Amino acid sequence: MTDIRAFIAGMGLITPLAKGVSRNWEALVGGETGIRKLTLFPTAEDLFFPVGEVTATLSPTGPPRTHQLALMAAEEAMAHGEGPPDAIVVGSITGGMCRTEALLKEKRLDPSLFSYHGAGSVAEYLAVKLKCKGPAMTVSTACSSGGAAMAVALALLRTGKYTRVLTGGAESLCRLTYFGFHSLQLIDPRGSRPLSRDRKGLTVSEGAGMLLLEGKTGMADPDTIEVLGAGLTCDAYHPASPDPEGTGALSAMKKALDDAGLTPQDIDYVNLHGTGTVDNDLSEAKAFNRLFREKKPLVSSVKGAFGHSLSAAGAIEAVISARCVEAGMAPAGAGCHTPDPILKLRPLKESKKAPIKTVMSNSFGFGGSNASVVMGRPRDPQGSKPPLPASLEVVGTACITGAGSTSQTLDAFSNGLNCEGLLSEKEICQPLSTRSVRRLKRLSRMGLSLAVDAVDDAGDPKEPDAVFFGTGWGALSETHDFLKNLYETDERFSSPTDFMGSVHNATAGRIAIKFNARGPNITTTGGDDSFEQALMSAHLLATEEDKPLLVMGADEFHPVLSELFDPSVVLAKTPSDGGGALLLRCVKTHTEASSDPKLTPLFHETVTGNPHVMSSLIKCLGGSETIIADFGAVFAGLPAQSHANGRKQLDLFLKTIEYNGPVIDYRRYLGQFASASAVAAVLAVSLLKTGEISSALTENKNIHLNGKGILLLGLGNSVTAVAVQNGEGSP
Amino acid sequence: MTDLIHELRNKIIDTLKLEDVSPADIGEEDQLVGGELGLDSIDVLELVIMIEKDYAVKIDNKELGARVFVNLKTLATHIREMAPEGIF
User: Fold this and answer.
1) Could you read off the pLDDT of B32-53 as tens digits, one per residue?
2) Residue predicted with more confidence, A37 or A462
3) Of B13, B9, B58, B11, whose CA–CA distance to B29 is shortest?
4) Is residue B77 part of a domain?
5) CB distance from B63 to chain A under 8 Å?
6) Is A480 labeled as catalytic in the residue annotation?
7) Among A183, A241, A438, whose Cβ lies nearest the Cβ of B17?
8) Does A731 have pLDDT greater than 60?
9) Is the separation of the CB atoms in A564 and A117 below 8 Å?
10) Could you tell me which chain B residue has the CA closest to the CA of A189?
11) Please, which residues 437-466 of chain A have a Cβ atom closer than 8 Å to chain B?
């Protein structure tokens, strides 16, 4: 059991209202609004809507806006810290899209210009700047990203492996979201008026919010703010619209309260997601009123002042919610002059002084992803939190590569044959109906197909409740087609379907709908270790899940964008893509263990500024003798972009532990795509079951594993280790 | 009007990638949204873009959309009435 509690040790904000937490707070309670005219990019006159644009001066020669905003907020949050954070978990949807789309428009197609494109590059940039050696994780669950990142950070702290975790979210205005929300008719041309009778939609915005969380045990300083609990759920209802009854939102709030050990009566203020769209505010109000039946807490949405900064919103509003407790005041909801009576809410029209001890902050997003966070003055601990699962056992697997689907890939790989290339969409969609995929493009088709096959492989009806999906680069086809349509029509028309499908978590949202999976639905992204991040998130958040969880990784090859974004693809001779899915059973105690193989994330560190990373890895794995006793084979992930460094790391590792067993460089067979490690995990599970690695892979003789496991190493810019081992119930 | 309805049938199938639907399957008075075609609000928005692009007719709010996207006939009538001169 874990008794570790998370406290806020620092906070930072940059928003359209102001720079810095104090100034933001003063401006917010003073009734100011940050919603103003767009200046970042030109638009046609009839498509000119107000936005929340940050006015602080940014460097024209620095990294993209998102990264600069993230760093400003992070530096403020770290100002009183003692050295770097141990880990970073950031919410990001569009990463460096603002720059990417300008480059694409100007047809400047030099891959070196796109090095900050990835949503994961924001966390990686912060890790370098703040000298963080631990994992730099990115949660990309659309508009709930900031809140979901906090939930992951809280779970990381509770493991006790990390003491200081920086978390938050950052977002820059860009054409993709501006024209995307317009195509969905979700923008209020007068600026958003959340919860009001005449609300017409949201206002897209930008900014960053960061919180430094510290894990401690024992007595708490009564003047600090504690992150008491978090709840993650999925609507499993629609890719872009909330469940009209707010059922997913309600269960996220309930889970957050349960996690905090509190009841609805304990909440003094709720910072609503409150985007200002007709549907969001209505479904959230229903959820609120279903939860808070007797004592109604104070309530407001601050998006009338900040706008909706998408992946940053959850983090910015968490900072504001924490500030409410410090200040003993709840902020008014700008823009809400006449509350909509249908909502049956009493949103604050004026900022109000009140004894506020405990607050709740909600964030919901596309894909039906919901995050709710509870913070407040420290309370007497309500019992220990559940520990990490004893293990995650594999009950079903599936993979896709250029060689084909699962059985063809297994066949080719175990015979040492090439699996590079691109599987035709017809073959990818084989387990899916024509109608179910008509609006999906390559990545979502692969993801849905993998999920269906993995669940099918498990035999009995073992449908998942939670989905953890890692993707290095997300839905490239939708992103490309959206921008292509936009630019071809002089920035007038773009496809709402492409916009909806362009978010990284669109695939996981689709999978949730398919299986009615209403538990946590997390998409992680970060280049070559995206799958490992998904597995780590699953391991952290699986503790409460009784039903199986899907852990997956997939990436699509796109003829224009892949070479611009992923340096490994440029170096590849054959364009390749694919993915892997594992249906896992969460085993909570050793006595529940079966003989099914188990998958355990063991290590995750970034390489920059971390010269002793391989010694840390060996130490974490238990030292030479333990590693050799535990593992009969090593699967090495060596991305082409960092092959030389990866090779050096691998050689150092093997030499130090004096390992003579087989080492399989799996990308040689699978090709270059970010989530190749997800396929490798599926292949490792399969080989473990046969207990043998064929001579075709070892270039020598058949190797018997003799009950030992397979170690999956990710090398290059980050170093990860995942153990694939026989279940503890094995004879 | 018949020509426009015929044209719209093909455009709907193309725009929404209704691979398993043939033009003859969409009757003039068949319910467009929530009916057998399986169309939803996102499909309507996709058609809104197509109609503005190809016929210069804006359908920029839900209430208007609900009146226009009843069936092929109501859609064609609205486009006929609202399209600027020279479109047809």
Assistant:
1) 998 888 899 999 999 999 999 9
2) A37
3) B9
4) yes
5) no
6) no
7) A438
8) no
9) yes
10) B60
11) 438-439
Positive or negative CA dihedral for A474, A478, A484, A485? negative
Give the C-alpha separation, B86 to A558, whole Å.
Answer: 40
Tell me which architecture the domain covering A391-725 has in CATH.
3-Layer(aba) Sandwich (3.40)
Amino acid at A431: P
pLDDT tens for each residue of chain B, 88 residues long: 789 999 999 999 999 999 889 999 999 999 999 888 889 999 999 999 999 999 999 998 888 999 999 999 999 999 999 999 888 8
Residue A1 above 50 pLDDT?
no
Q: Which domain holds residue B60?
A: 2-82
Distance from CA of A500 to the nearest CA of B (A): 9
Query: Which residue's structure tokens are 């569009």?
Result: A94
List A523's β-bridge partners, or say none.
Answer: A469
End-to-end CA distance of chain B: 10
The CATH 3.40.47.10 portion of chain A extends over 5-376, 391-725
- Cα separation, A282 vs A43, whole angstroms: 31
* CB nearest to B42's CB, from A434, A435, A500: A500
Q: Report which DSSP code applies to A380.
A: -
User: Cβ B42–A493 below 8 Å, yes or no?
Assistant: no
Question: What ipTM is given for this predicted complex?
Answer: 0.94
Q: Report the residue of chain A nearest B53, measured CA to CA.
A: A493
Element (H, E) at A30: none
Query: Angle at which helices A21-29 and A313-327 pack, to 10 degrees?
Result: 80
CA-based torsion, A154, A156, A161, A162: positive or negative:
negative
Quick check: A185 and B38 CB within 8 A? Answer: no
Would you say the pTM of this structure is higher than 0.90?
Answer: yes
Q: Which of residues 3-32 of B touch A (CB under 8 A)?
A: 16-20
